[in-house]
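Morning!

This is the sequence you dropped in the shared folder:
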Amino acid sequence: MTSSTRPQPLSASATAAQLPKAYVIAEVEVHDTAAYEDYKSAVLPIVAQYGGRYIVRGGRIESVEGSDPSGRMVVIEFPHFADAQAFLRSEEYRPVADIRHEAAISRIMIVEGALP
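The structure's back. Tokens below.
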């Protein structure tokens, strides 16, 4: 393969429309329902500000393999990995995340989606 036909890294060859979406996936064990409701209301506009949209927000879970999640599951789709990172690290989200920290025990991760 010559250097002119060698595949380039995604960052060098893809346009923004070709980048994979990213997903914030959270497992949330709520222990203060009222405070968690406050969190849910406060986080919505911040998610939207960073281009996110909820794919899963609670709902029925059926474990097929492995152990059951310890709480509710949340999946938020973002246009790109950097948008998900920016949301979770933003000044706007920090005080809202503090509400969640007081109301629940969470595991949160960012997962890059498949290329379109």
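Headline: The two ends are 25 Å apart (CA to CA).

More detail when I'm at my desk.
O.
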